[in-house]
Write a structure and sequence with these properties.
519 residues, 6-stranded antiparallel β-sheet, 17 strands, globular, binds adenosine-5'-triphosphate, GAF, Nitric oxide reductase transcriptional regulator NorR, Sigma_54_int_dom_ATP-bd_1, nucleotide-binding, ATP-binding
């Protein structure tokens, strides 16, 4: 590199410090500049959070790396770097596994292992903040790197982090002031921050949670099975002013019909055979806190009537008692049923439905969250890698594509299970060795309805599906399938999909609504 281009790169970096950029872009520009200064295959910026390292930005590493949480005790190289006050390089023959083995972007499976690796610890305001790591697949790549240059890069990284964090701090301060003015209390708590997902619908959901958390509104959380309804209920409670009070969860589907009333409202001694002492119900246990009624759509009609009475006036009676008790409980309820349909069919009381859905919150399905699928996959891969004591666990490119193309009827829970099963399957193969880099193939995932299967649908099958339907329904079925597939390919970007289909965005949005692909 000539001195002039070297100076140019450094000047660009310093210029960036003065710009007001979103943190993700700021860090990405920093990493790109570092790759221009030091020839390598991957750079990563990781922040220390307790006993693990969280990648804030990566360049040259697979996208799922951003969803990984590297437990320091599992990664001796990270441990050594964190303990070393100066930049350091690992010897080429170091037996220690590299945390990024198999994660370098765009390389063939024969050359997955990182061969040259260096890094430096970052201190912000005198406190250990995290790490900057540089990796190369070629041995001896860093032979000519001057450690003074690495020290300079570390200082510029710290300056970038300081500026980024300061700007974020000022931004959230401004937001706080604004929200205070609107008489909202900022309801951000740790757990919500730790949820994995960056897609637009997921970020929108997190915002909605922050907004609704500090009201005392009853929230009806809806969404397909496994989307994270329970997680959201916990998130709302955590972010609410009641978070020091109990959160009591009841799974309405698991309650035996004859015990529902006593479980929810409690009983007095002798109220029925088996009531050997006075017992408080879930409502009383949740007093001043939150009661989460999971699978509320499964409650039988008799129990719905009793629940409605308590929701109307906060007064309840233990089974067998004659005096009334008053409770102050915030209600969150969840269901994967379409309750409006349940009401229509007479299985759910309309008045209870209206009481529960004061604030309806719909959780988007996993297939509507685009690249979040890969981030979550990375998160679960790292969990499994650590649990199974593996050196490295990665996804082959075709496996990544298959994950993105799959429809995920069981959503996040299904993804969690698919990755856990695939990791076990791979490990149990006789060739698999814990110390090699294990790559999950598309076949390991054993997804049921991937795109290939859809493509293999024969016209005969399509004919038989169409039999007995009118022309309009057949057309709609076709459009629904085709447009969902194109939306998935464009990661739910409406404008890009509309462009490809040659219609305008508003017309496509209307069509999606008519086909019930969007609300
Ligand atoms: N964004 C996320 N980040 C990390 N883990 C998640 C996320 N969303 C969901 N999960 C995990 O996915 C699993 C399913 O979530 P959860 O139990 O909340 O779904 P649910 O909608 O309540 O399911 P069901 O309808 O079956 O009751 C849980 O293990 C949860 O921790």
């Amino acid at each position: 590199m000539t001195t002039l281009s070297w100076l140019n790169s450094i000047t660009n970096l310093v210029d960036d410090l003065a710009l007001e950029l979103p943190s993700a872009e700021r860090y990405q520009r920093l990493l790109m500049a570092i790759r221009r200064l030091v020839s390598c295959d991957a750079v990563a910026l990781l922040r220390l959070e307790g006993d693990y390292l969280v990648p804030l930005a990566v360049n040259g590493l697979s996208k799922d790396t951003l969803g990984r949480r590297f437990v320091i005790d599992d990664h001796p190289r990270f441990k050594i770097l964190l303990d070393c006050p100066e930049p350091m390089r690992f010897p080429a023959n170091s037996p220690l596994p590299d945390p990024y083995d198999g994660l370098i972007d765009g390389v063939t499976s024969q050359q997955l292992e990182v061969h040259d690796c260096m890094g430096c610890v970052l201190f912000c305001h005198g406190k250990l903040w995290g790490l900057l790591t540089l990796d190369a697949l070629e041995r001896n790549s860093f032979d000519k790197v001057d450690f003074n240059l690495l020290q300079l890069i570390a200082s510029l990284t710290v300056a970038t982090v300081n500026v980024g964090e300061r700007i974020e701090q000022l931004r959230s301060q401004a937001k706080l002031e604004q929200e205070r003015a609107e008489s909202f209390r900022l309801a951000i708590t740790q757990p919500i921050h730790k949820w994995i997902g960056e897609s637009e619908p997921f970020l929108k959901l997190k915002k909605e949670i922050e907004l609704v958390a500090n009201s005392d509104l009853t929230v009806l959380i809806t969404g397909e099975t496994g989307v994270g309804k329970e997680l959201v209920a916990y998130g709302i409670h955590q972010a609410s002013a009641r978070n020091r009070q109990p959160l009591v969860a009841v799974n309405c589907a698991a309650l035996p019909e004859n015990l529902i009333e006593s479980e929810l409202f409690g009983h007095v001694k002798g109220a029925f055979s088996g009531a050997i002492s006075d017992r408080a119900g879930k409502f009383e246990q949740a007093n001043n806190g939150t009661l989460f009624l999971d699978e509320v759509g499964e409650l039988p009609l008799a129990a719905q009537a009793k629940l409605l009475r308590v929701l109307q006036n906060g007064q309840l009676q233990r089974v067998g008692a004659d005096k009334e008790l008053h409770v102050n409980v915030r209600i969150l309820a969840a269901t994967n049923r379409d309750l409006t349909n349940e009401v229509k069919e007479g299985r759910f009381r309309a008045d209870l439905y209206h009481r529960l859905s004061v604030y309806p919150m719909h959780i988007p399905s996993l297939r509507a969250r685009g690249n979040d699928i890969l981030l979550l996959a990375g998160y679960f891969l790292e969990q499994n890698r650590s649990r199974l004591g593996l050196r490295a666990l990665r996804l082959e490119p075709l496996a990544q594509a298959a994950l993105l193309a799959y429809s995920w009827p069981g959503n996040v829970r299904e993804l969690e299970h698919v990755i856990a099963r695939a990791a076990l399957r791979l490990l149990s193969r006789s060739v698999a060795n814990k110390q090699t880099i294990l790559s999950l193939s598309k076949q390991d995932l054993q997804l049921l309805d991937n795109d290939q299967d859809k493509l293999e649908e024969t016209p005969v099958n399509l004919h038989s599906q169409a039999k007995g339907k009118d022309l309009r329904s057949i057309q709609d079925d076709f459009l629904r399938n085709y447009i969902s597939e194109r939306l998935q390919v464009h990661q739910n970007n409406l404008s890009a999909t509309a462009r490809e289909l040659g219609v305008n965005r508003a017309n496509l949005a209307r069509l999606l609504k008519r086909l019930q692909l969007r609300k």
